[in-house]
UniProtKB/TrEMBL annotation:
Highest taxon listed in the record's lineage: Eukaryota
Keywords assigned by UniProt, alphabetized: Actin-binding, Cytoplasm, Cytoskeleton
One function term, GO molecular function aspect: actin filament binding
Domain ADF-H: 5-138
Natural source organism: Periconia macrospinosa
Protein name: Actin depolymerizing protein
Source species taxonomy: Eukaryota, Fungi, Dikarya, Ascomycota, Pezizomycotina
SUPFAM superfamilies linked to this entry: Actin depolymerizing proteins
Subcellular location(s) per record: Cytoplasm, Cytoskeleton
UniProt keyword annotation of Cytoplasm present: yes
């Protein structure tokens, strides 16, 4: 396996990560994809200024990718918080060898994408629905005053 410097050698990756993290930047998400079907190198595939639904549109059923998304949570403008989500995507038709390598490579990606509230490993876009992700973020934050009843 190549060292993380090789896997993530694209300088645009670190810049996009910082932009997504920055409140001064309009970017709210980035997606890393493999350079080719046989390559282990990742490249910045796309960035955007919208919601997590835009990220889903960019993820194909036959590919592996990593996404980093900034989301705002809160009941009103005064309680709004910014949280980050790290997505490890392996589409339902992703090749077995790629999926096997991803478990190791996702650790290397985390050396660049270091700060996030939740990590979602999935092959199902329903798990990346804005409401589903918001619920995961709220659980990670602790108290959740939106739910009726309790599961604890």
């Amino acid at each position: 396996m190549p060292p993380p410097g090789d896997l993530l050698s694209d300088p645009e990756i670190a810049k996009a990560y910082e932009d997504v993290r920055s409140d001064k930047s309009p970017l709210t998400w980035m997606i890393l994809k493999y350079a080719s079907a046989t390559s282990d190198s990742l490249a910045l595939a796309k960035t955007g200024e919208g919601e997590i639904s835009e990220v889903c549109e960019e993820l194909a059923d036959d590919e592996a990718a990593y996404a980093y998304v900034r989301m705002k949570l809160g009941n009103d403008e005064y309680s709004e918080r910014t949280k980050f989500v790290f997505v490890v995507w392996a589409g339902p038709q992703t090749k077995i060898m790629r999926k096997a390598k991803m478990s190791f490579q996702s650790g290397q990606v985390k050396q660049v994408i270091r700060t996030y509230a939740v990590e979602i490993q999935t092959s199902d876009k329903k798990e990346l629905d804005a409401d589903a992700v918001t619920m995961k973020l709220r659980k990670a934050m602790g108290a959740n005053y939106d739910r009726q009843g309790s599961n604890y």
